[in-house]
Amino acid sequence: MKNQKYLNMPDWLSSPENYSPVKQKNTFLQQNRGRLLNLLSLFSDKTETTSQPLNRQNSFIQLLTTITLILLTSLSRNISFIWIIYMYQFLQIALLPKLNMLTILKRIPINLVFVLLFILPSFFLTDAKTVIFFVLKTNLILIIVSYFMNTNTFFDIIIVLKKCYFPDIIIFIIDITIKYLKILSESLYAMTSAMELRSVGVNRHQYQSLSNLFGSLYLKTKSTALEMYSAMEARGFTGNYHFTRTKQRLNLSDITQTCITIFLITLFFN
Amino acid sequence: MFSFSNIRYGYTDKLSLNNINLSIKKNEFVCLLGPNGSGKSTLFKLLNGLIYPSDGQYTFNDQQINAHFFKNSVNAKKFHQQVGFVFQNSDVQLFNTTVYDEIAFGPRQMGFPEPEVNKRVIDCLTLLNINKLENRVPYHLSGGEKKLVAIASVLSLNPDVLVLDEPLTGLTAQAQENIISIMQGLHNAGKTIIMSTHNFTQIKDYVTRFIEFSENHTIVLDAPTKLVLTNSDLMVHLASM
Amino acid sequence: MHIPDNYLSPQTCITMFVAMAPVWAISVSKVKVQIKEKKETVPLLGIASSLSFLIMMFNLPVPGGTTAHAVGGTLLAILLGPWAASLSITVALLLQALLFGDGGILAFGANAFNMAFIMPFVGYFIYSFFKRFNQEKIGAFIGAYVGINLAALIVAVELGIQPLLFQDQGGNPLYAPYPLSISVPAMALTHLLVVGWVEAIFTVLVFSFVKKVSPNSIYLAGNHPQSNVKKMLSRFYLIIGGLAVLSPLGLLASGTAWGEWSASDILPTLTQNGLKAHMPAGMAHGLDFKPFLPDYSLFGVSLPLGYIFSAFSAVIIFIILFKLVTHEKSKIS
């Protein structure tokens, strides 16, 4: 009985398709898939740096140092001072494992292009010195931030925010955000792949399709949230969240870092 | 049709495919077996050009498939039309607001006039016996219905090869049988079918060849069904997976 | 739209943090109320932040072969309500700044102000205005378009005041070098012509999809929409009022921080340097302030004064705009 219906296999389906696509330069789906893949890779391996004793720094101290350094760089008008911070940063980077070092260094040229594109037209407004100074400072800040990003994971960040006495609800939201960022990126990655595989020609309603993708993602998000809530309720969630504020002990590298930062601050004001 | 030689994928200390040598001919019906995480899904992604091997060569119809090949949009589009992929999770594959639009997505892109698109959609709906779903929203369908719509949306492209990642997982017995007979029908119509499953017994009378992956991401068995069915030890081993 | 560090002066960044603080405070308290009624709001907020993050990293094609990304401020406000959207976007921006280097860490307050406050609230108010006439899609479209353009305008102002306020002794800009006369047209042009359309089309299409597939998944403003909107508006005025007070403070802050030049030293230097010389912001606070109203001006007004003027004008325009919206509303109901 069942097999009978396959006798009506339509002609077009039993003969090979004679299709030649039109040439079109449109690779944004592939691009986005690449970006999502990069994002997903962040969730997997970053344990390497933390296992190195030298870099097992207290995230809170690190964030404070990072912000202080950005602030000092941003305010400084002294080329020697900028130079000193550059040296300090590169020294720190030099102590990282090779892989992390490369990720930080790889960002520099890309960033330089962006900064230059932004600043170059202003040659007409100011002088070369100002332009160079701006580029140097912006680039330095990027390196400072990259260093922080490369030595801290999502989970370190949460610990830092707890230390900063963010309201529990915000920490809870951030906690869920990070967990679900992985799940949603995986979904979006699969959806983008699926769309790419079926994009065999010209899509005249590209925005429609892409928007549908995000619409579905939102609906899935919403139903996931409801499921998650029932799971939480089943475990006795009452609407209150308490976090134990874990104490991270300071080690030698934290103290060194703090001393260097204090030294840089005093240097700045002299 | 497909040929893999010395394929590796992943980092040296964390390979998800290790030294894969494999070739698949036209109109085969191949079934991949193996535990979760043994590399079946990675092989499927590779097969569909979503990722490229870290090492080794992959050719399709004697054409080397790599990043360079996909740089050319004409190559990429032709390839995706020829090789259809049904994801394990149908949710990620359905993004249109009606089943009709979902199935019409491919043919419309191929530039067919609307009557031809309509014919293809109706044919696919009839073939899979889901005409009544035509105007439903894919998002609200049941798991089995979603799977059928996903298959229909790939079939409407008329691919030469149909790759299905665990098409039977999570479906009712009725739906599973339905999908097996659809695959069989397509195989009879001349399509090449590559699928994966955990249920050897259910599929053993339909497929032409079995490939087993082991936990260390290599192929440990590659044999035609005829051979497998005569070896009772092997049958017991595969059925117990 | 994400401002990196060193484009804005730290003083501006602090001012923007202070400006954003009441929004965050109210959002948290508003959302806490929402959680008491519907406990699933908590996971929803977290998941919405990740969604917001993904919207901002997903490139959409733009005619001409390049790509742009939507921000989704208005969209999330329509789907989740403006306060929840504001919190979600804030969290997404925080993670972007700390973990991906998208947008500065010091500039986080400014970025949050533009994308997690201006965009969702402006977009949502326009949307809810059109909703009164059952024109939700038009509302979503115009809301998103106006929302992102207004945010872009504010970005342009934030960048454009930098060369006026923060210069070295030679009158050279210390941060973003382009004055308002360049930054505003540049931002306006790209956003009015390209980015605004991307945002608006994306918003209306996602909105329509959700409305068609699952209409219950769209935020409804409480049981008493009227009173709720009124309450929200009064809060909005409060924030805007606070901003009006803060904007001159921003000027002062820029002066108090680094008084490395004395006022009398700098006057001759400035004039010697001719046209390039501007009034350093530090002077606004200094003793010599009164006689110094130079030619260098913004639309014919002296610079620090011009800044205060434009800040106040913006506030007034805001108030008028929202007065108009609410007036229409009460007339209809």
Automatic annotation (TrEMBL), chain B:
It is found in: Cell membrane. It holds the Pfam family ABC_tran. The keyword Glycosyltransferase does not apply. It is a peripheral membrane protein. Residues 2-240 form the ABC transporter domain. GO terms for cellular component: ATP-binding cassette (ABC) transporter complex. SUPFAM superfamilies: P-loop containing nucleoside triphosphate hydrolases. SMART domains: AAA (SM00382). The keyword Nucleotide-binding applies. GO terms for molecular function: ATP binding; ATP hydrolysis activity; ATPase-coupled transmembrane transporter activity. Keywords: ATP-binding, Cell membrane, Membrane, Nucleotide-binding, Translocase, Transport. PANTHER family: HEAVY METAL TRANSPORTER. Belongs to the ABC transporter superfamily. This is ABC transporter family protein. It comes from Dellaglioa algida DSM 15638. The lineage of its organism: Bacteria, Bacillati, Bacillota, Bacilli, Lactobacillales.
Automatic annotation (TrEMBL), chain C:
One of its GO terms (cellular component) is plasma membrane. Residues 237-325 form the PDGLE domain. The lineage of its organism: Bacteria, Bacillati, Bacillota, Bacilli, Lactobacillales. Its main location: membrane. It comes from Dellaglioa algida. This is Cobalt transporter CbiM. It is found in: Cell membrane. The chain crosses the membrane at residues 12-29, 41-62, 74-99, 105-130, 142-166, 186-210, 236-258, 305-325. The keyword Transmembrane applies. PANTHER family: METAL TRANSPORT PROTEIN HI_1621-RELATED. Signal peptide: none annotated. NCBIfam families: PRK07331.1, PRK11909.1. It is a multi-pass membrane protein. GO terms for biological process: transition metal ion transport. InterPro entries: CbiM/NikMN, PDGLE_dom. Keywords: Cell membrane, Membrane, Transmembrane, Transmembrane helix, Transport.
